[in-house]
């Protein structure tokens, strides 16, 4: 098995015999809702949402088990039927034989091409697939059949794409009954299906979606016949791999205008017999998709079903997505640079697919979660910051007045929905993420005034941080917090952030750490909601409080803001009696008092507090958390290794350290104590040694999430029911492994941070082991296979880490600062590395020059040149934002930074 090979600097790659990998899939999508997955044999699905699947839904196991795939058949006169996708019984049986057909995949961002050669049939197929980056809700295929023999060949071409046309719920639930809803019609170019009703969780409703397959030859010639019913297409005793109508080359008798009702449908489309001369080729264009009417498919046939239009649309689509990925890297390792090109694209994919709708992401029913809203913005700030302000402002509309947040995210930006099942659950980490993203936004832009913008609060049945229900509330009142006068209440973004952090500060367990509730970042820690505590995220909240205080100080000193206006109810959370911080019951009572005050509504009265007073209060809380963790959670085991305990279980027992079942260590607690500066520098050194000893495993990509607990620990979380080395239980979970790298870089441990990134990259880039296309997966399992590819928050954190920590290109209140932490081994043969990035709406090519060949820690920034002219700086190497915005916005500018 060979590795994939990049063929340019835009991530385009080739891979031989890709079908010899059973669980690979590739994303094809656009921004108007089409979401497809495709395999080397054109398996996979195509859908708009949970209730609108054109092709049958697939999970990971269906990729090798499902026969209902896209197909294109060629009947060669005198030889027999051949599948251009390789999906026939005979071709499948020959996969491991010497007669295996020669195949190669070539793919780039949002397009996929598979080439297949058959010596036996003397023909070659080349199938290119993509979803146009337009408003059209279609997926396009171009099938080119080439005669690679030295004799003419007479062929009969047939498109064969099974049409599912219903909700994913119907895959088993009422599968046959829902086929009775089908109204099938043949048109000039294809087959359309317009079900009468939909049967799903929404109830029995009139269907409003038309599904279909249309096709033509490359020069626009129409089909000559159709076979739109599955059972007639496959024949009695047949299947999609051995369809009787194709294998026996039966005539497709049905013409345009025919109608059929109540059967499973297929877009089986027959073209006229044709003779292909030696070394000549015939091309066919196929469109599958969704419409509001039959006319939508007629338009697709007119606009897209010719080779010229297809090629033009592909070119425009490729250019569209490349413009979206307006960040690139140049280091000594060209493979890494290209691999990162795909990582750059992953946050865009997650905005489209949410956390579902790719084969391994077969949980949930679509949409993104609360963390995703904020972490995907991290990458946007590097690639497309223009609309981030509005996005952040809208996202804050999901915060509840008790510091928790909505858990069901709507399709529209800023849309949050009350849980239809009234499930009361709190993820205790949710309040921490919005500040991390907001802080990055402010640092990048200098827009400190964003903190004073106003936004509403989300309101539903859940109150008291998941402990109570507001029985006075119902949906008719809307989902916004209101005053006692029934007016919608709005608070500043700063107030939202304070609500999230101050309520968390008082929401503690018996060891005076923040309660775990239903889980933190690790959703698998979901069985300790009574007595569980998260030391890990206590430290993150503490670090955030300190950083909020720093932003307030900037507001006071630079913007001359003397007082901050807050809802009167928050006064109870701003106590000057710091002695209560040590008393768990007192803190819990304060939280209860606050939550009771705003259980159903708020007074609507505003109180004013001086910046100095607010800063002192917040910094006092941050200091207390840090000192509390340092005093109580630093552990040293019998082998002499030291690290921070991260959790308490539902029996209020410390989770980490030496036990009768072995040493227990978790990565999460180390990440956030390092990142929040709770861990002293000497402690960071000890943590690194402990993590390298207990968690690092190069064979599976680096740092595991935890050691083997050797029990199903039902007083902490479901993750311990998973086999060790899989998903949250001891796999290399990319998200936390990358955040560990980020934390190490932040603290100046660049060599160790690079090790974490380089190990996971090297593993993923080794296709023979990882078995995934370029990019970073959610996790790596015990065999080293990358799992849950593409849709992972780790991509955003990796981009952030590479840009702002490794390359050291970061904002400081809107100015551009350079703090490189690049290792000597990363510089190329010319002693350079470069990053191209958007900053202050200008494209900048930032080049670091290390002619002295010094290692990180030995060099510093000595000279800066902007477009060849030296820029003088004093002290910190930085460029004023005003100077950058004065540059021509229509060209790329080069900034050279000399290290000495």
UniProtKB/TrEMBL annotation:
GO terms for biological process: carbohydrate metabolic process. GO terms for molecular function: glycosyltransferase activity. It comes from the Bacteria. Keywords: Glycosyltransferase, Transferase. Residues 82-294 form the Glycosyl hydrolase 94 supersandwich domain. CDD domains: GH94N_LBP_like. SUPFAM superfamilies: Six-hairpin glycosidases. Residues 485-563, 617-807 form the Glycosyl hydrolase 94 catalytic domain. InterPro entries: 6-hairpin_glycosidase_sf, 6hp_glycosidase-like_sf, GH65_N, GH94_catalytic, GH94_Enzymes, Glyco_hydrolase_94_b-supersand. Transmembrane segments: none annotated. This is Glycosyltransferase family 36. It comes from Clostridium acidisoli DSM 12555.
């Amino acid at each position: 098995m060979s590795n994939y090979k990049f063929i340019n600097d835009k991530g385009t790659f080739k891979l031989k015999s890709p079908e010899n990998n059973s669980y690979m899939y590739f994303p094809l999508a656009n921004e108007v809702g089409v979401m497809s997955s495709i395999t080397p044999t054109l398996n996979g699905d195509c859908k708009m949402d949970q209730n609108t699947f054109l092709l049958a839904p697939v999970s990971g196991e269906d990729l090798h088990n499902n026969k209902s795939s896209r197909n294109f058949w060629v009947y060669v006169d005198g030889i027999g039927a051949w599948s251009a996708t390789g999906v026939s019984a005979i071709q499948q049986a020959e996969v491991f034989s010497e007669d295996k057909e020669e195949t190669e995949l070539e793919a780039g961002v949002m397009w996929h091409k598979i080439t297949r050669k058959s010596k036996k049939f003397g023909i070659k197929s080349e199938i290119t697939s993509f979803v146009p980056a337009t408003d059209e809700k279609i997926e396009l295929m171009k099938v080119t059949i080439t005669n690679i023999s030295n004799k003419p060949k007479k062929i009969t071409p047939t498109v064969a794409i099974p049409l599912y046309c219903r909700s994913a719920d119907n895959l088993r639930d009422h599968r046959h009954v829902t086929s009775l809803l089908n109204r099938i019609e043949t048109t000039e170019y294809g087959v359309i299906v317009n079900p009468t009703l939909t049967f799903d969780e929404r109830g029995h409703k009139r269907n409003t979606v038309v599904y279909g397959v249309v096709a033509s030859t490359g020069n626009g010639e129409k089909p000559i016949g159709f076979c739109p019913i599955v059972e007639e297409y496959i024949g009695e005793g047949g299947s999609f791999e051995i369809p009787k109508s194709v294998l026996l080359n039966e005539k497709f008798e049905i013409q345009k205008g025919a109608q059929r009702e109540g059967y499973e449908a297929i877009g089986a489309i027959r073209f006229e017999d044709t003779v292909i001369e030696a070394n000549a080729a015939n091309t066919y264009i196929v469109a599958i998709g969704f419409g509001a009417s039959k006319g939508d498919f007629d338009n697709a046939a007119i606009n897209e079903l010719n080779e010229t239009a297809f090629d033009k649309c592909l070119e425009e689509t490729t250019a569209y997505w490349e413009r979206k990925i307006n960040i690139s890297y140049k280091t000594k390792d060209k493979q890494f640079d290209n691999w990162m090109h795909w990582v750059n694209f992953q946050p865009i994919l997650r905005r489209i697919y949410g956390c579902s709708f790719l084969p391994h992401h077969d949980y949930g029913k679509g949409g993104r979660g609360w963390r995703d809203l904020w972490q995907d913005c991290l990458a946007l700030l590097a690639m497309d910051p223009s609309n981030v302000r509005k996005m952040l402002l809208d996202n804050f509309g999901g915060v509840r007045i008790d510091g928790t947040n909505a858990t069901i995210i709507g399709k529209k930006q800023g849309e949050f929905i009350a849980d239809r099942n009234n499930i009361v659950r709190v993820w205790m980490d949710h309040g921490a993420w919005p500040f991390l993203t907001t802080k990055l936004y402010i640092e990048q832009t200098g827009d400190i005034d964003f903190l004073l913008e106003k936004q509403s609060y989300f309101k539903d049945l859940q109150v008291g941080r998941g402990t109570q229900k507001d029985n006075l509330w119902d949906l008719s009142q809307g989902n916004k917090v209101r005053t006692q006068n029934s007016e919608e209440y709005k608070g500043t973004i700063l107030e939202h952030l304070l609500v999230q952090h101050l309520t968390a500060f008082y929401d503690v367990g018996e060891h005076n750490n923040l309660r775990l509730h239903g889980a933190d970042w690790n959703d698998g820690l979901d069985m300790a909601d009574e007595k569980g505590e998260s030391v890990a995220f206590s430290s993150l909240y503490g670090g955030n409080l300190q950083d909020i205080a720093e932003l307030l100080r900037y507001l006071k000193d630079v913007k001359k803001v003397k007082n901050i206006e807050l809802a009167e109810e928050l006064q109870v959370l701003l106590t000057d009696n710091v002695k209560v911080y040590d008393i768990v019951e007192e803190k819990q009572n304060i939280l209860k008092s606050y939550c009771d005050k705003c259980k159903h509504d708020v007074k609507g009265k505003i109180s004013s507090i001086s910046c100095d007073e607010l800063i002192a209060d917040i910094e006092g809380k941050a200091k207390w958390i840090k000192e509390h963790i340092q005093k109580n959670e630093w552990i040293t085991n019998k082998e002499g290794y030291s690290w921070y305990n991260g959790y308490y279980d539902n029996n209020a027992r410390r989770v980490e350290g030496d036990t009768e079942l072995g040493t227990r260590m978790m990565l999460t607690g180390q990440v956030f104590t390092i990142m929040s500066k709770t861990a002293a520098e000497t402690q960071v050194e000890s943590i690194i040694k402990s993590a390298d000893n207990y968690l690092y495993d190069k064979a599976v990509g680096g740092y595991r999430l935890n050691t083997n607990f050797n029990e199903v620990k039902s007083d902490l979380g479901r993750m311990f029911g998973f086999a060790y080395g899989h998903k949250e239980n001891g796999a290399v979970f990319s998200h936390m492994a990358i955040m560990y790298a980020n934390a190490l870089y932040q603290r100046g441990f660049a060599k160790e941070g690079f090790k974490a990134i380089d190990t996971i990259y090297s593993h993923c880039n080794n296709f023979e082991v990882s078995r995934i296309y370029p990019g970073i997966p959610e996790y790596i399992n015990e065999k080293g296979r990358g799992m849950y590819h593409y849709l992972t928050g780790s991509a955003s954190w990796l981009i952030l880490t590479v840009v702002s920590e490794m390359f050291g290109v970061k904002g400081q209140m809107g100015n551009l600062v350079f703090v490189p932490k690049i290792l000597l081994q990363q510089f190329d043969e010319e002693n350079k590395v470069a990053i191209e990035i958007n900053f202050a709406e200008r494209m900048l090519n930032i080049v670091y020059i290390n002619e002295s060949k010094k290692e990180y820690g030995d060099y510093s920034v000595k000279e800066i040149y902007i477009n060849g002219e030296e820029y003088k700086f004093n002290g910190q190497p930085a460029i004023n934002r005003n100077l950058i915005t004065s540059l021509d916005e229509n060209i790329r500018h080069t900034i050279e930074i000399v290290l000495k």
